[in-house]
Design brief:
Blueprint (H helix, E strand, L loop, with lengths): L1 H29 L2 H29 L7 H22 L5 H18 L15 H34 L13 H34 L7 H23 L3 H26 L8
Helix pairs in contact: 1-2, 1-4, 2-3, 3-4, 3-5, 4-5, 5-6, 5-8, 6-7, 6-8, 7-8
Length: about 280
């Protein structure tokens, strides 16, 4: 019964997320406020369905569903969706939802290509540290994904302004200052969660193997990613590193996030490879 509910929930999530992205794209073209409200409501429905999917998956597997490729990518979907919705609740950034919905849809489709088989956890992973460490880290990825989108939008808008031919995107994108503030908010939140995720991972490693650090490929890339964001965070706080530099660093940092999530797992292996 739970398995069937879980299956149909995922199908519904795909349909609703496609609808949300389509609605946001229509709004991007016609800029009608009513369409934007509809698009946001549909994305909210997707977020609720995502939450229900994770809950049913938990009852199906008996553990926090965040250990397989499908589960980790889907948790990334959930984190990005709710990171955006929480951001949108406090701030308004023109057409940010359009670009975010595209990223969410891409992640949903990636999760759909992975096996949804429930894989039993090895004994060492049966710990309350699992949802703490993995959950916090992927929530960080959600906010850093928003910073990436903000950086991408910033570069498009800057190119429009520098070309001196204010084209299609200029009137549909926020000001450079608004995008820079968006980048700062998402970077700060994501960096805090990423730091907590790494710290919880080292404490868990100490509990399991008696060592805080094992030179696992994913651990190494997590630190590399953290250092990239640390540099950006430090430079922004101390010398006012803003604008194009911050946008480019947000994009570079997110590329490191993606490699940490997938590249280090599949290309380099190690203890953090997905179950099965």
């Amino acid at each position: 019964m739970i398995s069937a509910i879980n299956y149909y929930l995922f199908q519904a999530i795909i349909i609703v997320t496609v609808a949300a992205t389509g609605a946001y794209l229509v709004f991007f073209v016609n800029q009608k406020e009513k369409v934007r409200r509809v698009a946001r409501s549909i994305l909210l429905c997707s977020g609720i369905l995502q939450t229900l999917y994770i809950v049913t998956r938990y009852f199906l597997s008996g553990h926090t569903p965040i250990t397989s490729e499908h589960e980790s990518v889907f948790f990334f979907v959930w984190a990005t969706t709710w990171a955006y919705l929480s951001f949108r609740w406090r701030y308004t950034v023109k057409n940010f939802g359009t670009f975010t919905s595209i990223l969410i849809l891409i992640l949903v489709l990636i999760s759909a290509t992975a096996s949804r088989e429930v894989i039993p956890l090895p004994p060492e992973l049966r710990s309350w540290w699992l949802p703490v460490h993995a959950g916090i880290t992927i929530v960080a990825y959600g906010f850093l994904g928003l910073a990436f989108i903000g950086g991408f939008m910033y570069l498009i808008q800057e190119w429009e302004l520098k070309s001196k031919r204010l084209g299609y995107f200029f009137s549909r994108l926020p000001s450079l200052n608004a995008l820079d503030q968006l980048n700062n908010h998402c970077l700060t939140t994501g960096f805090i969660f990423l730091t907590l995720g790494i710290l919880s991972g080292t404490l868990w490693a100490k509990q399991i193997v008696g060592s805080y650090w094992r030179w696992d490929p994913k651990e190494i890339w997590s630190i590399i990613t953290w250092c990239i964001y640390l540099i950006q965070f430090h430079q922004r706080m101390t010398v006012g590193w803003r604008g194009k530099r911050a946008a480019v660093m947000a994009i570079i940092g997110f590329c490191a996030v993606i490699f940490t999530l997938w590249g280090a797992t599949y290309l380099l292996g190690g203890d953090h490879s997905y179950a099965g």
